[in-house]
Prior knowledge:
This protein is mainly α. Helix content is 39%, strand content 4%. A two-stranded antiparallel ribbon has the order 1-2. The mean pLDDT is 91.
Amino acid sequence: MSRISIEEVKHVANLARLAVTEEEAKQFQQQLDEIITFADLLNEVDTENVEPTSHVLSIKNVMREDVATKGLPVEEVLKNAPDTKDGQFRVPSIIE
């Protein structure tokens, strides 16, 4: 006996805005039942002494500290710009 009905499969498909045929609904019912069976199998695993985690690997932040530093002089930043005005990049207008 399946743990998910054809009606439930069709309901989920409708929520996802998917059109499914009777054959597809039966196939999805079987596949979803296998997924539920596997999830139940995982529920049997003893996890009492397992620490909760948000990632499978113990990764620490490898980014440097975010420290403000003096940037490049405006003249140097703009020296290769094709068009500038008042110390800023000038680009073609895209709004009419």
